[in-house]
Amino acid sequence: MRHTFIILFTLLYSLAAIGQRQCGTAVALQQRVLEHPSLQQVIDNNEKKMQLLQQRRMMRVQTEAVPQNVTIPVVVHIVLDNPDLVTDAQVMSQIAVLNQDYNATNPDVSQVPPVWQPIIGNSRISFCLAQRTPGDEPTTGIVRVKTAAGQSFSISGGAPDAKYDQTGGSDAWDTQKYLNIWVTRLSGNYLGVAAPPGNGYPAEQLGVVVLYTAFGTTGSVGRIYNLGRTTTHEIGHFFGLKHIWGDDGGTCSVDDGIADTPLQGDNTYGCPSFPKTDNCSPNFPGIMFMNYMDYSDDACMHLFTAGQTGRMRDVLENIVSSLMASNGCTPVVLPANDAALTAVSGVTGKLCDNRILPRVTLRNKGTNALTAVRILYRLNNGALVNYNWQGNLPSLQSVDVPLPASQVAVGAYNLQAYTQSPNGQPDANVANDTAASRFHFDAEAQLPFEEGFEQDSFPPPGWDIYNPDRSFTWERDRNVGHNSKASALVRNKGYNVNDQTDDLITPVIDPQAHDSIFLFFDVAAAVYSDPNMTGNVWDTLQVLVTKDCHQTGAIAYSKWGKYLITRPTAVQDEFIPNNNEWRRDSVDLTALVGKDKFQVAFRNISNAENNIYIDNIRIVTKDINPDLRQAGVLIHPNPTDGLVWISFYERPSDLQQVNLYNAAGQLIASKPGNAVGPNNRMTFNLVNEPNGVYFVKLIYRNRANTIKLMKVR
């Protein structure tokens, strides 16, 4: 069971280092590989790329004596139950430490032993607190987010919960332009964890997380780890550095990939005396315990080597070079009058109504209060729709503005909205005036409805995909199908994040007053873990009915684990079904659909098991007996030879009791009104009763209905 192993691994690793420096970067990467084995190839490829860049750097003729000085904008997210525990002064003290450590100007660099003084590295990388937001507004570069009392975050997966608003953290600023640092409480005795580029982390998770008591040199900082070296260490990981001992557990089998750092068996705790030797470097000068990438106390960390700074420059210049071009350190000068549109809402993706109600977010990016502005929008190349907004919007504030409604025909649309004449003056920055949104309004589908994914377009015309994390989602497999050439699937085995939801949604379907709606589809699925395992969290396939354009949905079908799979044994490779590894499933949608227009959503909930396929979707109708429609209730078969069904055209809300009597008036069976099943039926069994006349009495809240029934053999 992969998930249980990860928990035990993390627990054991943490217990071993209580009270000592503990970095979670290597642990988090190992956990991710255990959960997503395919990531190992990504990590290996990244390491090969680093080695190749290092070789090229060593071989090429330098056109400059030294690398250029660069300054990287930093945003610090303080995510705590009391964010004021980390003061602005504490943040600035950490930035000062980084600028010294990464430029070899730290006062204690003089404590590096003479044998290693010649190889002290200067990365020429400096850091500034961001002066402008991604939206080009002034900022201090510090974001404070209040969490629940005592909340801490696990380093598992790089502490992702600290990095999203929706999980109690703080959303990253554009990681191509800013180095994001999250300062928070970490569980498990960890001081920090990095999510470096090139190792399979989602872009919005890149950066470092640091324990708030090991951040900076003042304020809430604790003892021992009080000189800011934890952040220096974690940013070293971000720029491609490994622990100096190579995380090989003391075997001397793995190096850190840097030529000028001595081979080292294991991490160092405390503040040793020089020289210190070990099993990997038994002779003078021994191991470089004062390197920032070891585990020594802050007071005994003094240097990066030239090889380490070279590797960091390789990463900066070749993998995250956009940080070098960022204008995040440049202060913003606001003009007097600047109206901006930051978003369009209400008209995005698939619409299920031809009447559109667009809204825009208007933001005042000028110093003057915004009292009037003209807002216009157009659909494709159509006529302009005009709205004159008036109000009193202070500087750097936003307001949601509804625009005039329109009606659209079936088709795809690009809505462009823009502002003009803020406060009756020319707009100082026309570059931020425009916001756009794409949407489509599709023709309704008719029943019977069929889809086999045989056409090249995906999703098929009129269908839609809901993919909130913009990662793995439904796709078309053009080589695998059930008695066909194609199908739809989600590759759960390669999914990086658990419990993510992805929906494949049909067009809007009109039931056309039919009595019953049934769904049939073929499914093929497998799991990575032992399907008989208990307590595991499985991939799940659900079918939902939505009648409000996917805003809400009712579950009609839900299967996982051994109830879903079509190959009974675990599959460690990517599952590709044979033609006999498909199952035909059916779902009665009648009760959820009613008489309303609807869509069906096929929902995949990923938990890193294996692929799920669907094919040959068919939604059909089945009309009810016209006698039942007319009478509202029907007893059949009548006469009967045993089993008898009482069917209702519509589920009776006021039915209290159903009694069955023989010809002598004796009660032989009774059921409560809530015994009516989901198919609007109730069943009685007369197999052991004699032939003759019977009476079914339906007792409603304010009335009763008696129907005669015959039993014959």
SSE layout:
Elements: H1 2-15, H2 25-35, H3 39-59, E1 70-80, H4 88-101, E2 125-129, E3 142-146, E4 179-184, E5 192-195, E6 207-211, H5 229-238, H6 306-318, H7 322-325, E7 339-345, E8 349-351, E9 355-356, E10 359-364, E11 370-379, E12 385-393, E13 398-402, E14 406-407, E15 411-420, E16 434-441, E17 449-451, E18 464-466, E19 475-477, E20 487-490, E21 500-505, E22 516-525, E23 540-546, E24 554-560, E25 583-588, H8 590-593, E26 599-606, E27 612-622, H9 626-631, E28 633-636, E29 643-648, E30 655-662, E31 667-672, E32 681-685, E33 692-700, E34 704-711
Describe this structure in words.
The chain has nine helices and 34 strands. The chain is of the alpha+beta class and 713 residues long. The strands form eight sheets. Strands 1, 2, 3, 4, 5 and 6 form a six-stranded mixed beta sheet that branches. Strands 17, 19, 20, 22, 25 and 27 form a six-stranded antiparallel beta sheet that branches. It has a five-stranded mixed beta sheet with strand order 8-16-15-11-12, with no helix packed on it.
